[in-house]
Amino acid sequence: MAKKIATVITDMFEDIEYTEPAKAFKDAGHEVITIGAEKGKEVTGKNNETTVTVDEGIGDVKPGEFDALFIPGGFSPDMLRTDERFVNFAKQFMDDKKPVFSICHGAQLLINARSLNGRRATGFESIHVDLENAGAEVLDQEVVVCDNQLVTSRNPDDIPAFNREALNVLST
Questions:
Q1: Does residue 105 have an active-site annotation?
Q2: I want to staple 112 with a disulfide (CB 3.0 to 4.6 A). Which of 14, 52, 81, 158 is the partner?
Q3: CB neighbourhood size of 5 (10 A)
């Protein structure tokens, strides 16, 4: 069954951490909706390889309209977590136990949402201490699946495992 995946994104996202999972989700028949500060705004990856036109503004959507949340890494999540609308959006997915897929620095948004206490997770090496301080059990492995809901990975090398496990969670 096709799922509707909210993808929170702004400038300086890690290009491949958006493009590869988004392609995998779409190839599996799911709908990927990009959500940024403003509908129609173009955002560019940190490697200048990818430009994305934002489908919806954060002020125009509600978590209940989506089946899952995808948070690509790069500098994007760090910028998004300064906006309470994105923090609250992510928190609602975690509180509702909806699937959340976070790669690399994506977990920074979940840290600010105070949604990782007691959860198993991973992320880019530089945020492991932040994850621990947020109450997560940090595992240094290519993909961590917690409660068949939260899927986290460390870096672009982990994308194949990340995609595999995210698609597994979507299929349940």
A1: yes
A2: 81
A3: 23
- Note if 146 is an active site residue: no
* DSSP tally for the chain: helices H, then strands E: 6, 11
CA distance linking residue 53 with residue 35, whole number of Å: 9
Neighbour order of strands in the sheet with 100-103: 56-57, 31-36, 4-8, 68-71, 100-103, 150-153, 144-146
- The closest of 16, 10, 7, 23 to 157, measured between CA atoms, is 16
Q: Which of 30, 104, 128, 146 is catalytic?
A: 104
- Bridge partners of 100, per DSSP, are 69, 150
The catalytic residue among 30, 105, 128, 146 is: 105
Question: Between 159-170 and 15-27, two packed helices, what is the crossing angle to 10 degrees?
Answer: 40
pTM: 0.98
* Backbone dihedral region for residue 94 (phi beyond 0: left; psi -120 to 50: alpha; all else: beta): alpha
Per-residue pLDDT band for 112 (boundaries 50, 70, 90) equals very high
pLDDT tens by residue, 128-159: 999 999 999 999 999 999 999 999 999 999 99
